[in-house]
Structures are given as structure tokens and as C-alpha cells.
Amino acid sequence: MITRLQPIGLLIGRVVLGVVFIAHGWQKFNENGMEATAQGFEGLGIPAPTLSAYFTVGAEIIGGALLIVGALLPLAGLWLASVMLGAMYFVHPLDGAFFSQEGGYEYVLLLTALSIAIGFSGGGALAVDSLWLNKIGEKKEEDEPVRAESMA
């Protein structure tokens, strides 16, 4: 029973997390604008603020979309986790409050952990990665030469 429901659970997790990241990236890109986002990053002491702003928005929008469809999950998970670790360091420092309503790092810590967990989950049967990897596995099985030992 659990095995049959696992792909649905992973799909829900991927979609929800992806939507959250896309919403945050879209807010920075469309509502705030990249110039204002870069200025905000500069005010927070983030190095190379313009580059960091584009890296962050790219991670949140593209990485969020990759999570939703389940493609390149380890790469997407690490990309998003790196952005969240940067947010934890520059915006929500560990020496400050824990709870997010107090400006703490609880929310970005959760997003970091979920990005890594889903990134390395395999995505489930309903992920592009699973479909692609299954095709590669089938192709390798078809291409394997028959060994002499197995013929005896």
C-alpha cells in the first residue's frame, strides 16, 4: 500500500515546495524587480549582489519548476539548498532568533532540508527523472552482451 502511494506523496511534496520557491522567485523578479532585489541584497551585505540576485531568482524559479516536474532533482535540490543556506547566513543568522515570525531561520532551515530530501529522493514514479532513468536502465539491459558463462 505504501509503495503505491509513495509516488503521490513525492509528487505532492515536489509540487508544493516548487510552488513556494517559484512564488518567492517571481516576487523578487516581477514585483520587486531585479534592480531592487540586488539593492536589497547589497544592503544585507551579500557579496556580488547583482549576480547573487540573479542566482537566487534563477534557483527559485527554474529550480522550483524542476522540482515540480521532477527533473534534475539532485541538481535542483542542491541549487535551492545553497540559496537557502545563503539566506540563513546573511538574512536569518543562526545566532539570532529561531522562529520565523521573529526574523529567525526556522523557515529557511526547513526549505533547505526539504530541498535536499526531495532532491535526493529520486522523485518517485511520477517524476521526469524516474522516467528518464528507467529508459536508460532498459536500454542498458538491451545492450548488454551475452556472456559465455551464462550460455554454459
Automatic annotation (TrEMBL):
Entry keyword annotation includes Transmembrane: yes
Leader sequence segment: none
Keyword Transferase annotated: no
Pfam families named among the record's database cross-references: DoxX
Keyword terms of this UniProt record: Cell membrane, Membrane, Transmembrane, Transmembrane helix
Membrane topology: Multi-pass membrane protein
InterPro entries: DoxX (IPR032808), DoxX-like_oxidoreductase (IPR051907)
Ranges in a coiled coil: none
Residue ranges of the TM segments: 7-26, 107-132
Compartmental location: Cell membrane
Family assignment from sequence similarity: Belongs to the DoxX family.
The protein, known as: DoxX family protein
High-level lineage: Bacteria, Bacillati, Actinomycetota, Actinomycetes, Glycomycetales
